[in-house]
Amino acid sequence: MECLQKPRIGSKSQRLPPPDLISLPMPNHIAAISYQNKQEFEIFLDSLPAVVFKGYIDGTVDFYDQKVENCTGYPRKVFESRRKKWTDLILAEDLPKVKTTFIQAFKTDKLYTREYRIKSKKNKTIWLQERSTIICDHHGRVKHVIGMFFDITQRKQAEQAIKEGQHFLSSIYTSIQDGITILNFDLGIVQVNPTMGQWYAHVQPLVGKRCYQAYHGQEIPCRPCPAAVHPGCGIMNVGITT
């Protein structure tokens, strides 16, 4: 090929730039492999329970498939046309933490995982977990981010339900006027309610001690022990100290 011929010796002509491989004719077998790889990549993307993206420092983003619409309600073209930035969707109260996580990753290993909320097109709040890598140029400046995000809304709702249930039980536990002690299978005190704490304030802390040591000043369990494990089922007896 003429474009690859060397300049004549002694010629002052400049070195020819490397050929643009994209503009060169692609042999049929390479084109077939490229097409097959593209198909395999698309199948791989479809199988992921996540949305894969390429993000930029200004908050704009490109997506590799159409799954972003299922998550946000916005079609892919809305982001690619730059009519919307990804940061437009993030809740304002979550933005400071999102930025802090990015800055910390940029200063260290360029990897980060962060969780935040977005508003969908239907004004629904969605929790996302994002796992990304920051790509920099040879000057150390940010070029873009490659990553994926997962919809973790159901997990967050379950966690919130558990917290609310624990708070409800804790409020009941605290309000009971009888003394309550929770023991492990070694008769060690795990938790007491405020009433029990008041009754035995003189031997605080109770947690970590054996019940027979804290409540009776003994070195061996009581006989019979009211909290002994039932021999038939292996379950500890439960009682309220009054």
| Largest beta sheet: strand ordering | 2-1-5-4-3
Q: Characterize the biggest β-sheet.
A: 5 strands, antiparallel
Number of domains: 2
For the CA atoms, what is the radius of gyration? 32 Å
User: What overall geometry do the principal axes of the alpha carbons give?
Assistant: elongated
Give the full name of the CATH homologous superfamily of the largest domain: PAS domain
Helix fraction by DSSP (H/I, runs of at least 4) = 25-40%
Tell me the number of helical segments per DSSP (H or I, 4 or more residues long): 7
Strand tally is 7
Secondary-structure blueprint:
Layout: H1 28-47, E1 51-55, E2 61-63, H2 67-72, H3 76-80, H4 95-107, E3 111-119, E4 125-136, E5 142-151, H5 153-175, E6 181-183, E7 189-192, H6 194-199, H7 211-216
Antiparallel strand pairs: 1-2, 1-5, 3-4, 4-5, 6-7
Tell me what you see in this structure.
With 242 residues, this protein is an alpha+beta fold. It has two domains: 23-156, 2-Layer Sandwich (Beta-Lactamase); 177-242, no CATH class. The chain has seven helices and seven strands, in the order H-E-E-H-H-H-E-E-E-H-E-E-H-H. The protein has a five-stranded antiparallel β-sheet, sandwiched between helices. The protein has a two-stranded antiparallel ribbon with strand order 6-7.
Characterize this entry briefly.
The protein is an alpha+beta fold.
